[in-house]
């Protein structure tokens, strides 16, 4: 397996693409390309979670896809802090850096897509079959890219047309989809939400409804939005599952293929729901752990590997 970390910008150490490119052989693909999954971990736009990076990559590798983990622009990457408890005390300081604010995070997805396309022949990646997978803030970022990938904010920035950077599908876990409702809700009294909004957009009180709509993917779905697999938990008290339901409704209204699962129980940030991603026992959930198998079946409708008929040698 080719496993390396690539800087996407010469002048930035924080935005990186980590490759998990499967080796080929005559017994496997024999030179044929594979589809790929590009993962965006969560972390409230304050940092990128390790739990939603490599362990998720291993799960998609097991499905037969190449995998890439993107650490996109966030406030705190490489600043020596990696938990909310460490970051939130900075709330009262003027610490927000403009190079991590919208639209940079979704532009980083485009930059990653271009990088993968440039290495497609070397890595044997089928560029027509690249799916996105995001968690929490990473899910919001993937949803944002999915509704903006063909707009000038992305295409002009990258200097290319949208044809080669459209995801074939998007998998979104416990997402936020509506910032208009968010900034008008009591959630902005929560230190984590307030800190996240400041990192992503600036001071909440200065954000207009027009600006909030621009970062509300459920309000921007149209006929060019890729199919989506959505999941959340009814017990999530951080990212209300209504955001997932709103996204599903938007997809339905626009006749975009989708599948949605709201598991009855489970807290925010369960990742795989298995010991592969659990740091404490309440991050284990056998029921929620089914999402990855459901996503596997759903993705095969869109990007299953082309496997010829025949008889095995042994």
Q: Going across the biggest sheet, name each strand in turn.
A: 1-2-4-3-5-6-7-8
Mean pLDDT across the residues is 91
Please state the overall shape, judged from the principal axes of the Cα atoms. Answer: globular
Helix/sheet category: alpha/beta
Q: Kindly state the percentage of residues in helix.
A: 25-40%
Compute the gyration radius: what is it? 19 Å
Low-confidence stretches: 91-95
**Oligomer category:** single chain
Give the terminus-to-terminus CA distance: 25 Å
Structure summary, number of beta strands = 8
Order of helices and strands: EEEHEHHHEHHEHHHEHEH
Q: Note the beta-strand portion.
A: 15-25%
Individual helix count: 11
Largest sheet: 8 strands, mixed
């Amino acid at each position: 397996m080719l496993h390396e970390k690539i800087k996407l910008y010469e002048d930035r150490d924080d935005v990186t693409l980590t490759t998990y490119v499967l080796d080929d052989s005559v017994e496997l693909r024999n030179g044929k390309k594979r589809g790929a999954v590009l993962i965006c971990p969560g972390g409230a736009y304050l940092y990128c979670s390790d739990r939603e990076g490599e362990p998720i990559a291993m799960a998609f590798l097991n499905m037969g896809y190449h995998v890439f983990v993107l650490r996109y622009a966030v406030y705190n990457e490489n600043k020596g802090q990696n938990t909310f408890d460490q970051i939130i005390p900075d709330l009262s300081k003027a610490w927000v850096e403009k190079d991590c604010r919208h639209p940079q995070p979704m532009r980083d997805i485009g930059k990653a897509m271009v990088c993968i396309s440039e290495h497609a022949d070397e890595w044997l990646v089928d560029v027509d079959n690249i799916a996105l997978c995001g968690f929490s803030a990473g899910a919001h970022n993937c949803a944002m890219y999915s509704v903006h990938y063909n707009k000038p904010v992305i295409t002009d920035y990258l200097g290319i047309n949208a044809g080669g950077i459209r995801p074939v599908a998007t998998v979104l876990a416990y997402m936020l989809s509506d910032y208009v409702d968010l900034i008008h809700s009591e959630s902005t009294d929560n230190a984590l939400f307030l800190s996240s909004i400041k990192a992503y957009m600036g001071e909440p009180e200065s954000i207009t409804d027009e600006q909030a709509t621009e970062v509300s993917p459920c309000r921007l779905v149209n006929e060019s939005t890729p199919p989506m697999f959505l999941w959340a938990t009814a017990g999530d008290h951080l990212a209300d599952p209504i955001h997932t339901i709103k996204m599903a409704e938007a997809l339905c209204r626009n006749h975009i293929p989708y599948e949605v699962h709201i598991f009855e129980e489970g807290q925010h940030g369960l990742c795989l729901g298995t010991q592969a991603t659990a740091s404490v026992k309440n991050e284990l959930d056998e029921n929620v752990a089914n999402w990855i198998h459901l996503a596997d079946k759903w993705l095969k409708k869109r990007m299953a590997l082309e496997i010829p008929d025949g008889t095995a040698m042994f």
